[in-house]
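User: What would this chain look like folded?
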Amino acid sequence: MKNDTRWNLAAKPTFMKKSGLLVLLIVFGILVMSTVCSAAPPVAAAPLISLGLDDAGSSGKVSVVLQIFMLMTVLSLAPAILILLTSFTRIVIVLSLLRKALGTMQSPPNQIIIGLSLFLTIFIMTPVWQSVYSDALKPYFDEQMTSEQAFETAAKPIREFMIKQTREKDLALFVNIAKLKRPGNIDDVPITVIIPSFVISELKTAFQIGMLLYVPFLIVDMVVASVLLSMGMMMLPPVMISLPFKLMLFVLADGWYLIVGSVVKSFG
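Assistant: Here's the prediction, encoded as structure tokens.
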């Protein structure tokens, strides 16, 4: 024990000397680095990028850079515009509920459902987009109207489409939530109220159609389950037996023709 104590006492000054030398080296290195940095030539500043207006004298004409910027902004909002301002929401929900009612799991796959919904949306919205192009975009590209006038003109056919598919109850709900005055006519309702009202109406309509689709397939499931229970085959999953009957019923009734035709005509 005495030898250990003597060894610790002898090692302590040596450790303190090494620590002090290490601190001096760190301080010396910091001083050298600060001297080198102060003596180094200044780094050239990065060039500034400015966005300006070309031909500022001409009213309503913005530069190409700003046009590209606005185009990229619109493209970033394109998915939300496609989903919320068109017929896509109703179609994709109805097709998804149809797949669940049939009980075919992942058939047809999601790519088929989304692709079919997309092309049906293009088919339904083509008259609206043609009106937007002929009344707003083409005159704007020909410099016959300003960007503000083009935006207001392009919003009119889209507003008319959404208002036609929106229930008055949903419009009144969002008017009350926004604490707006009672509008004199539909043109006085702002677009910020029409869009959520349209989405809520589309969701309700899609679920109503889906409920009607579920009824015949639910009856088939109940009949098959009752037959299997009466035969004492309780261990056999009813889905395995009811699925062929549901597919047979769907094919014999020409289900795709009826459903797609009904969904498209519901926007008339």
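The first helix runs from residue 2 to 39. If you want, I can go into more detail on any region.
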